[in-house]
């Protein structure tokens, strides 16, 4: 009763194949599992799903005011628009109205008051998106305007916060600063960033026969969407199924804020009994949803004649928007990364979550880490300019582990282990010929009155783990079928970063089979429940370990069976390149062996689980080990600027990045390069502008500029650190690569500042906010040349 689907092979052929080696396991540059589908257009996203004949489309009417009471709300005229099926307000939600992820503050629809321009007030379901929009615009809504907090500095001064503030302290920073040879203090505005994913927020909801819903949602956090949909519907979570095959980009923007459209569509689906889709048009998406947190950071630093920091006070103030969302965790991470790669022996770091009447800001690649790092990198450059030193020398002098022992503990008391930032910096400095280029740039600037060049090397030390400790867990389901094919499902979500490919490689390596035998199925809350969001760079670390755990359970059963069935030791059962050898008694294909196991009633499915060990953080004591390990990187950027216009070009970028033992070098290089370019956009071209009424004026690609092909450095060298072993027991000793490369782009911002420094007069140190748009660069050049403050050239 054989059901073999592969041609039979001789013993010699099987042995030859096994010796050839697995070509698609870990460490191989396997192409992205959806690459061909994405290039050809066959990859299905939520909006590509076939529509039902009676499907409804949703449009939400947005608030035109930053802060106002709703004095009149009449939706009767909406029903006069042809095609309108239903209209809902906050009063029509059957369950809980608030959909805040951790703390309340995010009503699904405005409830008597609006708190930012773009807040959904009512939602209309109609037979087309156009009719739904016309129906929403027909509503009669009147407002009583209230004072709005729009400026983060003013809100900070008034102590308008969405959560409690937090302080981390090591040593006595005040005394160290007072006794230092040099003291500098200042502040830095750091702009936000729009996620600008190719696929905007979208959900498609189908009602089920038992009063529940199936939600096809573009989300990084299926479990959170499941929880909130069940909450607004007032039904148990088992009535809600979330299905997520792939996203057209996420970058953190779909960790919490995918829930709003899903919840609204679900309410309509239950109310009408019809399938409902809610897809935000680009303008509405940008106005309605949050961004990367803009930060206003302040510092006071004391240092010696060599630039060594002796004491520092840092205050990081994240613009949370109108509600908490994830701001507490994001500001915490900014605080954790206020040291970047530098030892701060006497440091006080304070974090505020400032409340303003804007969309509630949310997760974004780096999750506050980039905003924290920017301040200390600004400080390093400023110290160097003050002392007349090369900024790289100041950076190296302040590295963890430099200048003797005892400089290996963070300001939150975590040991910095396996630190090789010194080695990486030395390697990159040599590889990119930094010293010779710096001299050549000085010569160029001396002879070029208009065009000026700058160069900078900056490091990255990024902690890997969710700072909310309980989220560091994952599950997976692995099923082996009798023909040797394998179905893999895990709690992570694929947003283009190659997570499914890497996890499939891990399972392929465990069974020693080709990756073509593995099918990764859509993330599904019925298959893997209670999953953590795919965020914090931990997707592969967590889900890869869970999948490996499941695969090892099945493999151990198979080995135990073979050992007993053929009367050999377990060590004699060897899986190799699709072949299973049982000592000298039997050699067969993996498919044949699988079928044999099934005939002998061996379970071939398993649910795996993983939780990250060792990590903890005592928030009250402000100390602990919030990160399992650190990932390191170093980058060198060279720029040229036109001092007459402020325009600039990145001429060259050299990157050295640590990924441990890479699971997939091709995907990792892509992540490093993509992260760098996205970070470069954040620091240069991507400017968010609000008017004095709190309305986002850059709500589309006509005014909001993400990096394009022409912005890519003319010379772009990327190398992964090779032959390094992660000291922690990560999956095959790999390291996370999603977020750390983003911060490598700080070298671009520092290089622009370095170029401006070449025109500074009378010891003026240029103050360059981010993003460093050409306009901002132009005004900073004027400031540096005339020795005036930035206020004299405000935009």
From TrEMBL:
Keyword set, alphabetical order: 2Fe-2S, Iron, Iron-sulfur, Metal-binding, Oxidoreductase
Cofactor requirement: [2Fe-2S] cluster; Mo-molybdopterin cytosine dinucleotide; Mo-molybdopterin; FAD
GO molecular function: 2 iron, 2 sulfur cluster binding; iron ion binding; molybdenum ion binding; oxidoreductase activity
Domain of life: Bacteria
Name of one Pfam family that matches: MoCoBD_2
SUPFAM superfamilies: CO dehydrogenase molybdoprotein N-domain-like, Molybdenum cofactor-binding domain
Chain ranges of the Aldehyde oxidase/xanthine dehydrogenase a/b hammerhead domain: 40-147
NCBIfam families reported for this sequence: xanthine_xdhB (TIGR02965)
Family indicated by similarity: Belongs to the xanthine dehydrogenase family.
Protein name: Xanthine dehydrogenase molybdopterin binding subunit
Organism in which the protein naturally occurs: Enterovibrio norvegicus FF-454
């Amino acid at each position: 009763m054989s059901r073999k689907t592969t041609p039979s092979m001789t013993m010699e052929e099987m042995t030859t194949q096994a010796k050839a080696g697995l070509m698609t396991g870990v460490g191989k540059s396997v192409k992205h599992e959806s690459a061909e589908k994405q290039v050809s257009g066959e990859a299905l996203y939520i909006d590509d799903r076939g529509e039902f004949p009676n499907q409804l489309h949703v449009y939400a009417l947005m608030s035109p005011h930053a802060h106002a009471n709703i004095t009149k709300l009449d939706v009767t005229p909406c029903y006069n628009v042809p095609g309108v099926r239903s209209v809902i307000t906050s009063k029509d939600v059957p369950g809980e109205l608030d959909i805040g992820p951790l703390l309340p503050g995010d009503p699904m629809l405005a409830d008597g008051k609006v708190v930012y321009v773009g807040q959904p007030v009512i939602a209309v379901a109609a037979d087309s998106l156009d009719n739904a929009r016309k129906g929403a615009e027909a509503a009669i809504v009147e407002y009583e305007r209230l004072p709005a907090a729009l400026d983060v500095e003013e809100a900070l001064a008034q102590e308008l916060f969405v959560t409690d503030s937090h302080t981390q302290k090591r040593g006595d920073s005040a005394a160290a600063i007072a006794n230092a040879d040099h003291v500098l203090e200042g502040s830095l505005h750091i702009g936000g960033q729009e996620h600008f994913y190719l696929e905007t927020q979208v959900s498609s909801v189908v009602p089920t026969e038992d009063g529940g819903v199936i939600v096809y949602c573009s989300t990084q956090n299926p479990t959170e969407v499941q929880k909130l949909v069940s909450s607004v519907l007032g039904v148990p979570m088992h009535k809600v199924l979330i299905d997520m095959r792939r996203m057209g980009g996420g970058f953190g923007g779909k960790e919490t804020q995918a829930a709003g459209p899903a919840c609204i569509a679900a309410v309509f689906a239950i109310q009408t009994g019809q399938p409902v889709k809610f897809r935000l048009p680009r303008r509405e998406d940008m106005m309605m949803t949050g961004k990367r947190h803009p930060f206003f950071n302040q510092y006071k630093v004391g240092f010696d004649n060599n630039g060594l920091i002796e004491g520092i006070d840092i205050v990081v103030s994240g613009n949370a928007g109108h509600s908490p969302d994830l701001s507490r965790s994001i500001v915490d991470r900014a605080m954790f990364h206020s040291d970047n790669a530098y030892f701060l022996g006497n440091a006080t770091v304070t974090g505020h979550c400032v409340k303003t009447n804007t969309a509630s800001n949310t997760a974004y690649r780096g999750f506050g880490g980039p905003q924290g790092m920017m301040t200390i990198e600004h400080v390093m450059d400023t110290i160097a300019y003050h002392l007349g030193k090369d900024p790289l020398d100041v950076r190296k002098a302040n590295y963890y582990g430099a200048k003797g022992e005892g400089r290996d503990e963070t300001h939150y008391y975590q040991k910095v282990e396996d630190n090789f930032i010194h080695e990486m910096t030395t390697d990159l400095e040599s590889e990119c010929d930094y010293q010779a280029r710096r001299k050549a740039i000085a010569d160029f600037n001396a002879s070029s009155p208009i065009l000026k060049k700058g160069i900078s090397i900056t490091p990255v030390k990024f902690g890997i783990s969710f700072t909310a400790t309980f989220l560091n867990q994952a599950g997976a389901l692995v099923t082996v079928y009798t023909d040797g094919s394998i179905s893999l499902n895990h709690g992570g979500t694929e947003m283009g970063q190659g997570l499914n490919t890497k996890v499939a490689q891990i399972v392929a390596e465990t069974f020693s089979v080709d990756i073509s035998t593995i099918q990764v199925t859509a993330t599904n809350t019925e298959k893997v429940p209670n999953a953590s969001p795919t965020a914090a760079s931990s997707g592969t670390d967590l889900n890869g370990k869970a999948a490996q755990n499941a695969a090892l359970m099945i493999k151990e059963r198979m080995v135990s069976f073979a050992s007993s069935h053929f009367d050999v030791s377990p060590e004699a059962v060897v899986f190799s390149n699709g072949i299973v050898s049982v000592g000298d008694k039997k050699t067969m294909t993996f498919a044949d062996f699988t079928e044999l196991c099934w005939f002998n009633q061996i379970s071939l499915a398993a649910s795996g689980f993983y939780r990250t060990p060792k990590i903890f953080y005592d928030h009250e004591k402000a100390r602990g080990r919030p990160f399992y390990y650190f990932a390191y990187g170093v980058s060198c950027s060279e720029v040229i600027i036109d001092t007459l216009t402020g325009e600039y070009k990145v001429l060259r970028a050299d990157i050295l990045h640590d990924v441990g033992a890479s699971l997939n070098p091709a995907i990792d290089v892509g992540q490093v390069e993509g992260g760098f370019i996205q970070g470069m956009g954040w620091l240069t071209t991507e400017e968010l502008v609000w008017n004095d009424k709190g309305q986002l004026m850059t709500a589309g690609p006509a005014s909001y500029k993400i990096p394009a092909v022409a912005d890519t450095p003319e010379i772009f060298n990327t190398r992964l650190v090779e032959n390094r072993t992660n000291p922690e027991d990560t999956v095959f000793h790999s390291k996370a690569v999603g977020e750390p490369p983003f911060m490598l782009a700080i070298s671009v911002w520092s290089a622009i500042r370095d170029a401006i420094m070449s025109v500074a007069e009378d010891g003026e140190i240029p103050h360059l906010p981010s993003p460093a748009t050409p306009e901002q660069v132009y005004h900073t050049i004027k400031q540096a040349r005339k020795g005036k403050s930035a206020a004299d050239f405000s935009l």
